[in-house]
Amino acid sequence: MLTTAFGLVFDPYVLAVIVGSAAFGLFVGAIPGLTATMATALLVPVTFFMDPVPAIAAIVTATAMAIFAGDIPAALLRLPGTPASAAYVDESYAMTRKGQLELNLGVNLVFSVVGGLIGTVVLVTAAPALAEVALNFSSFEYFWLALLGLTCAVFISPSSPLKGVISLLIGLGIASIGIDVTAGHPRFTFGSVEMMGGVSFIPAMIGMFAVSEVMRSVCDADAPLKLAQERIGNVFRGIGAVTRRYWKNVLRGSVIGTAIGALPGAGADIAAWISFAVSKKFSKEPEKFGTGHIEGIVDATSANNSALSGAWIPALVFGIPGDSITAVVIGVLYMKGMNPGPTVFMQAADQLYAVFIVFFLANLLMLPLGLAAIRLSGQILRAPRTVLMPIILMFCIVGAFAINNTVFGVGIILVMGILAWVMEENGFPVAPAILGMVLGELLEGSFMTSMIKADGDLLAFFHRPIAAVLGVATIALWLSPLLLRLLRKR
Amino acid sequence: MRLNDAVIGLVLIVVGLLVIWHTRSFPAMPGQKYGPDLFPSLIAAGLAFGGVILVASGLRARAPFVQMGAWARSPLLLLNFLSVPAALLFYILCSDALGFLLAAPLVLAVLIALYRRGRVVSSVAIAIVAALLIQQAFSRLLLVPLPRGVIENLIG
Amino acid sequence: MQRRHLLGVAGAVFGLLAAGSAQAAWPERPVTVIVPWGAGGGTDATARIIASLLEKELGKPFNVVNRTGGSGVVGHSAIATAAPDGYTLGMITVEINMMHWQGLTPLTYKDYTLIAQVNADPAALQVRTDSPYKSAKEVLAAAKANPGKLKASGTGQGGIWHLALAGMLQSAGIPPANVPWVPSQGAAPAMQDLAAGGVDIVTCSIPEARAMIEAKKAVGLAVMDSVRNPIFPDVPTLKEATGSDWSTAAWRGIAGPKGLPAEVQQKLGAALKKVYDSAEYKKFMADRGFGVVWKDAKDFDAFLAKSDADFGALMKQLGLAK
After folding, report:
1. pTM
2. Hey, are the CB atoms on C14 and B150 less than 8 Å from each other?
3. Is A198 on the interface with C (CB under 8 A)?
4. Core-most of A173, C91, C209, C221, by most CB within 10 Å?
């Protein structure tokens, strides 16, 4: 069986498809506004005319590359290429400013590969069992998960906790614009049809990171239009030391990433946030976070690539998408006759194993191709900033437009860009606002639907076993600083 | 542009109260305890509360209410600063009528020439090349329906 | 003066070119097909197969574009408000007959140039595999006996599957409020919530429930249609199971903004009929488990008029209409 599977993958046509879609994925991921999900959607019509294995291989490869490639503009320009890189974009850029661009990119590349591989191993060995667990998550569990996620905001705000919380609330408030998830009532839309769709998260992110950064850099009086670093040297120097020091972080990030990826309600972006916060919480030197410290990046960059593989777990076993990418993938699986469900492991075993091999291959291929992408993108650092900034702005415009094909997206980046600029000038961190936007709908939706199910009984959040564990853990986490202080006083 | 915390706090309080007032018009869900107004009003209450703390700390700090950055005193840097929102606004208003291949080079050329303080001819050339490359990548490769205008209709 | 003349001449030339291009045979450049729902869903898949077959038929690219958000309002508005030149079309869905009753948009099916209906997926009733209710009859009996105990899901508040449930209950003489609706982001999350034990009943279409049924996490109890579904021939129709005549389905169709040129309507309608009759389309839909139904522009219009009135009456009774 395995030989058949190898035969299916190591076919010149399939290999050509993999390399081609790898290049495509790197391109899409590196451009802000174009996401891994969009890469998948764009591949769907192309895969119409392919056999099942090359069709799935194209998607697997392109998305893995895209999630890694999102780290490159994050490091170079403080501009997350995909939402999955947003969690550590500030840390990443701070490293660049310290002159550690190479180490940062090297870590992103190597541990994206490792995270992807670990996620794949889990997918291959434990998919059916893990899917069973993931399937038990109902709105009660998701509510606690969302609250846990919000707690990250406190851990990721470097300076004032109050300003971090306000930023988080601003993000949550923005997330509540549009038709509300439970009653279907249009909120804060002021009669605009576009506003009914809400503030799309990706243009908001482009505005808050990229546009505000462009604004800052064109009016910086001290160093007008200067980038932090001009050339990219050997990205693999220092990786060995990082690995020896932080191998546990890699494992932890990958495990968290795979687990969160496997949950149908959360994907690579939430995985990156949570693993970054966990990294800081358990770090021996949390004070270094925010100053360009590699530790959290190690966790998060492993996590978002492993989440990608994790998302396939419920998708393959139950046809329930683990993220927006696998939502598209499920359609393609049906189209190719590999109907998801426990039976896919028997009925389409050859093809399925071929897909698993592709997962490994794609992640390994990321090493040379990702290196090439880093080298290529290093060229943009040589472009004069006066030319680069307008072009970045144009990419932002087109990327924001492409999300929903409307200039409303451009309006979002304008408003969010100005908002983020004002916030950062006054010491409000932007990252918690982004987190609020990511989690807002999940938090409210899971709370409201839980209350309908439980007829308004708040204690229902502790009735189910997993929910109770998550709930107690969340509350303990919140109370722990308070308790510690009390204990110390005595 | 550094604002005194008290100013920001005041804005948050006003926004929070406005939102709470507005959410009272939201319909209740029939037969349910909680409706679509719950989360927005909780969030708004949180913002207003944060605002109160900021006002208190801001008044204690006695910083000036508004402190402009260095860029605001240099007319050229001020122009640089305003150029970004202006470019976005222009694109929002005009791209549909002009089409991408007219609007994008225009925006790019003006910005590049502005930041380089002149060298108009080469700036226009760079702008045209960059816009064409972006247009090809997005509309041919990624099938994004960029707005069409006169030039797109000419080249088909 | 010279320069102004030149501009005038240039303007005239552009004008002529523009006029000339309008008169050439449609389509002479890529056509955009707007889908009001996300990539990967059923509507998206249907639109994409149709677009790729239309492309083969008419020789110009048909690009599918997802305009999501606002429970379909945003995308439906985008189709209706596009320039009626034949270069922006869209796939409209059952929600167009519901959203205006909820007061979300003034748009109705009358704001479109209808081309044809290409699909319909009847609603079906699903429960968890270990559910105490083994038949549609038992579900209805439980709903009647214990108001508020059973919770159902499948889509957002006032969505098509909510109406399917309410209509089913009403046809059996049970007040629809007896089974509270838990809004969800779609059928897939609802089916997952069913398996997780969050809700007791899910009403959605067979293809949407299929993976969970095949994974033995859920069972289908009835199809709200006049005939059984070919994928699960063992699942009875609602009439067979309970005697109720209630049936409803989610449908999809191709439409353009109002005022599409007659030439475009005719050419597109003919091409779409060919696409619908093609083996590729039939096979694709059968593989996914999607139902195929053809209604040309005239039949489509008549069907929509009736269904719009029916939905309005039902939603008013449910208190969902404004």
Report:
1. 0.86
2. yes
3. yes
4. C209
